[in-house]
Hints:
By secondary structure, the chain is of the alpha/beta class. The chain has helices at residues 31-35, 40-54, 75-87, 97-100, 105-116, 133-166, 193-208, 212-220, 228-235, 264-282, 284-287, 333-347, 351-398, 404-425, 432-446, 449-455, 458-468, 489-498, 503-507; strands at residues 21-28, 57-66, 91-94, 120-123, 178-183, 186-191, 243-245, 253-255, 298-300, 308-312, 317-321, 330-332, 473-476, 481-483, 513-514. α7 packs across α10.
Amino acid sequence: MSDKLNAFGKGKTTSLFQSKTAVAYTRVSTKEQADNNQSLTTQANQILMYAQKTGIEIVKSFGGTYESAKTDERIEFKEMMDYVKKNKIGLILVYSFDRFSRSGANAVYITDQLKSNNVQVVSVTQPVDASTSAGELQQNIQFIFAQYDNQQRREKCMAGIRQMLTNGDWPTKPPLGYDSVKINGKRQIIINDKGLLLARGLRKKLKTDISFKELSYWFKSRGFEVTNKQLSIIARNVFYCGYMSHTALNGEVVVGNHQGIITQKEFLALNDLLNARFTDRKKVNKTNIPEVPLKGHLKCAKCEANLTAYLVRAKKLWYYKCNTHGCKQNISATKVHQDWVSTLTDLQLEPRFIIPITKNFLLTLDMEKENHHKDQQTITAQVKEYKDQIKTVETNYALGKISEEIYTRVLSEIQQNLRPLQEEMAKGVFQLSNLEKLVVNAVENLSNLLVMWNKQDLLGKKIMIKSLYPKGIFVDVKNMLYRTQNKNVFIEYIQDITGDYGQTKKRNSEPKFNYSALVARSRIELPTSGL
């Protein structure tokens, strides 16, 4: 029979491979294997030898790096698949089927799709004729077994990780703010300088409720770059209060051997604050109503619940209301806003006070700077003394003069005494020049409170209220009185100097915001936002 007639034959050819063009794919699972070229050269050589033996042309090679095979969303793997489809390649040569994929059923699906496009996956060390039903079954079993083997390895690995966590040891690189060091051959996780600064920042967040964005700027001004998103994750990570949470623990939280940068009590209080803010954020569309800017800051004096707001459409009038069952106090928003404007007017600083108050405050800051410098010198000397003690203890241990038990106990005691001093030192240098500018701006703003209020948008007004009355305003509807648990300490300080300059006017006007009864005196601080 003429060979030319063979061109008219039907059905698949009996040849093992219908195509003689192929791509090669090699990979290892870890970066260390890739860096050391472990098995990559072996894989490539075996594939090349197989191709030469069977007369297959390798047109391009892929992989040659580390990619986990538990998922098929791999960069080199996807590039290879795209190349095969676009260039009508008939064969994919791999060292073994587990080098191609360990995704089990998904690997079977991929090879089936490739087969429908006349592309065959060939393992050079596991010869299987996938063109037959028996060969295809054997190939699929290899893929399923590769996935099973992967899962077995993972379970063994996770068991080891779970045991480490149960013992209080963190199995991987510690999070930001911690270093992993070896002391006497044993791995320990200790707080570094960034961790000490993070502790200050988280406590600042807990105390002042500043946003993570503001806190990020605060860190940046101290030479520490950390995003507000990172801060949000850090604030919710139990690692930072001395505990550990991990997927290997199946939802359990265990005590770690490391020290937290904040206490458990501080961590829980911080997250209560974050959860409350998240709840408020979910109501943002209902809260941000320009007609009622005090909403979210007014509280019921009777039950201490936040006042909501509603509109009487027939009268086109807004009202603040307490929704607590059995309370239901209502007050006209117009009336509240009039009292608020009067209060801002009363709080405004008279021009004659601007220069003397500015000088007085700067003098106070200068004294604070001098005291701070003296404190830093004392702390530095104490830190040096403790570090010298640590060197002495380490030397005595190295010379065999003291036992390991005594060494560990004494070293731990010294470090406990040293840590709060290091935290105090991490607060940095008192920068008077920056504070001078803040003082001048704040005093000037206090002389124009009402003008500032009228120029602000809704967000600006809310920030301004928060700056003046951090804990909110309690409304006594029955007696038409307003109470505050505290107010801006900057204003308190100025009123101490001026002799409560606004109180005379308040006695002769209708009841507004009563400061005296519940305002607690506190140390002098500058406001972080607004004023």
